[in-house]
Amino acid sequence: MTYSRSDENRRTAVAIGVAAGLASLVGLLGSDIPLTADQPFVLVAALAATSLGVGSVGTVSWYLFVEQSLLVPAVAGFGYVGVVTAGVFLGQQPAAVETLLTKWLYAAGVVLAGGAVEYAVRRGVQRAVGRLGPRPLH
Questions:
Q1: What pLDDT is attached to residue 122?
Q2: pLDDT of residue 129
Q3: Is the dihedral of CA 37, 92, 76, 66 positive or negative?
Q4: Rounded to an integer, what distance in angstroms lies between the CA atom of residue 89 and that of residue 110?
Q5: Which among 14, 37, 86, 99 could bridge 43 via Cys, Cβ 3.0 to 4.6 Å?
Q6: What is the pLDDT of residues 35-67, one digit of tens each?
Q7: Which whole-number Å values give the CA distances from 47 to 71, 83, 93, 99, in the listed order?
Q8: CA nearest neighbour of 64 among 132, 4, 118
Q9: Cα–Cα distance, 111 to 37 (Å, whole number)
Q10: Is residue 8 within 8 Å of 17, Cβ to Cβ?
Q11: Residue 10 CB partners (closer than 8 Å, separation 6+)
Q12: For residues 59-77, b (16+ Cβ closer than 10 Å) or e, as one string?
């Protein structure tokens, strides 16, 4: 069974997203910062949502970069995942945990909106001058 380059890119993007989600979860659970909630279900739901959110930011950022060579999603997404994960692992700061738990949705919005704007601008430039359009990196 042979896979296309696009299938490989999707698999790699999912693997990166899973790694980012697991890294954020391990960082949160391994930190000295207490995680409390009134009900255990709320804590589990918050950790699951955080892990899925950070993973999705990493997945979408990688996929848009590799498949369409879009830089805005890559810089925004990888910057967010890198800074927050490093803050949790290295800094042990409550602000990093708060950012990780709540701001991934904003990062996802920047990744998607920034990617859409960059795609539209680059498509317009490509139609105008015939170069610099979005395209796969391979």
A1: 94
A2: 94
A3: negative
A4: 24
A5: 37
A6: 777 888 888 888 898 889 989 999 999 999 999
A7: 29, 18, 17, 13
A8: 118
A9: 30
A10: no
A11: 63
A12: bbbbbbbbbbbbebbbebb
Contacts of the segment 101-107: beta carbons below 8 A, 24+ positions apart: 101/46, 101/50, 104/50, 104/53, 104/54, 104/57, 104/80, 105/53, 107/57, 107/76, 107/77, 107/80, 107/81
What's the pLDDT at 91? 65
pLDDT digits (tens, 9 = 90+) for 84-102: 777 777 766 676 667 666 7
Residues contacting residue 113 through CB under 8 Å, at least 6 positions apart: none
| Locus of tokens 């490989």 | 8
Buried/exposed 94-113: b ≥16 CB within 10 Å, e otherwise: eebbebbbeebeebbebbbe
Task: State the pTM of this model.
Answer: 0.83
pLDDT of residue 66: 92
Phi, psi of 34, rounded to the nearest 5 degrees = -70, 135
